[in-house]
Design goal:
- The structure is a single chain.
- This protein is α/β, with parallel strands linked by helices and 385 residues long.
- Helix 3 packs antiparallel against helix 4, helix 3 packs antiparallel against helix 7 and helix 4 crosses helix 6.
- Helix content is 33%, strand content 15%.
- The chain has 2 domains: 273 residues, Alpha/Beta hydrolase fold, catalytic domain (Rossmann fold, 3-Layer(aba) Sandwich), CATH 3.40.50; 99 residues, Rna Polymerase Sigma Factor, Chain: A.
- The protein is globular.
- The strands form 3 sheets. It has an 8-stranded mixed beta sheet with strand order 1-4-8-5-9-10-11-12, sandwiched between helices. Strands 2-3 form a two-stranded antiparallel ribbon.
């Protein structure tokens, strides 16, 4: 079905699927490994113009998916993960733009990943799935856009891992977008963030139920994945937000001194809750692969140097930092702006004055809605200039 024929609703959406690699046209990865068959799950919000020139690509973060906004059914309890950003009259205005988001390769929400069937064995890949990078994700997305007949985007936008993909888009396909909006991301991950990722992976790998990655058909490493998520949530929030949300409040009645190691503080309860929620919707192997993809992000790989890679970027760049971000501190977004400008490109810096840490791009999006709207407006004024 062509995009122009997809019913548009401000409330309801659905998953679509595209085969972007086949045995006769495989996807060759940065590692040199080959994926003979790749499916991407994607969703569309808004209507593509007859000229197919009004599309915005949203790239999701680590545990995100294609379900950016809206609901699959009217009685769904929650909308998509960025419903504040995408929809009629919102910053990514679906009355004006056609917004597209696909689940990344390596994911577990409909796109090819470690839980998918290996065409050589018929069994889930598990750890036989090849290592993937943001560049690989972007190349798969480019094949999707080719199939949809979209040659040039208005913009690519994303937060966290999504921001990494957005920058990779700008360097890999410099003529395919007018603008790039990178929120809480960078062209490479800093050492402390890699360290956080490694501890999370070790929690999964050392769970006795991991079974070398071939746990499908069993509950799997639920304890390891929950612990990984608990640590991840600490990196997504700030000390300031933890004090505001939980303080040192004790959970329930009774004497905290008598509880031993049972869950005592509200912040502990929150972390356990978040860990369990992720276990119910996410694959542990995908968590391993996508955190490793973040570690391996390097805009400069194969391009001379990290600095030189920014000279490939022709799109206008809006780099958004978050004041309280532990995982991607603002100096990383400021560096992106400096390097693009040094190479003769156009880049702007915007800082979110939010206490919510890395998660601010999700929970505090209204703070940047209007600046993003203005940036998108500016792209229309400068296109073709």
């Amino acid at each position: 079905m062509g995009l122009a024929a997809i019913p548009v609703s401000t409330l309801l959406t659905r998953r679509l699927y595209a085969q972007v690699a086949t045995p006769s046209d495989p996807l060759v990865l940065e590692s040199g490994r080959v994926l003979k068959s790749v499916t991407l799950c994607y969703e569309v919000f808004g209507r593509l113009s007859p000229e197919r020139d009004n599309a915005i690509l949203v790239c999701h973060a680590l545990t995100g998916d294609s379900h950016v906004a809206g609901r699959y059914r009217a009685d769904d309890p929650k909308p998509g993960w960025w419903d504040d950003a995408v929809g009629p009259g919102k910053a990514l205005d679906t009355d004006r733009y056609c917004v597209i988001c696909s689940n990344v390769i390596g994911g577990c929400q409909g796109s090819t990943g470690p839980s998918s069937a290996n065409p050589d064995t018929g069994r889930p890949y598990g750890l036989d799935f090849p290592i993937v990078t943001p560049r690989d994700m972007v190349r798969a997305q480019a094949r999707l856009l080719d199939q949809l007949g979209i040659r040039r985007l208005v913009a690519v936008i994303g937060g966290s891992l999504g921001a990494m993909q957005a920058l990779e888009w700008a360097a890999t396909y410099p003529n395919r977008m007018q603008g790039v909006i990178s929120i809480g991301g960078a062209g490479r991950l800093h050492p402390q963030a890699i360290a956080f990722n490694e501890v999370q992976r070790q929690a999964i790998l050392n769970d006795p139920d991991f079974r070398g990655g071939q746990y499908y058909g069993t509950p799997g490493p639920v304890r390891g994945l929950a612990i990984a998520r608990m640590l991840g949530m600490i990196t997504y929030r700030s000390d300031e937000s933890m004090w505001a949300q939980f303080g040192r409040d004790v959970r329930g009645p009774g004497n905290a001194l008598q509880r031993g190691f049972d869950v005592t503080f509200q912040v502990e309860s929150y972390l356990h809750y978040q860990g369990q929620k992720l276990v119910e919707r996410f694959d542990a192997n995908s968590y391993l692969y996508l955190t490793r993809a973040m570690d391996l992000m390097d805009l400069g790989r194969g391009r001379g140097s990290y600095e030189a890679a920014h000279g490939l970027i022709k799109a206008r760049v809006l780099a958004v930092g978050i004041r309280s971000d532990l995982l991607f501190p603002p100096y990383l977004q400021q560096e992106t702006v400096r390097l693009v400008r040094a190479a003769g490109g156009h880049a702007e810096y915007l800082e979110m004055d939010s206490p919510w840490g890395h998660d601010a791009f999700l929970v505090d999006f209204p703070l940047i809605a209007e600046p993003i709207r203005r940036f998108l407006d500016s792209l229309e004024r400068t296109d073709g200039a």
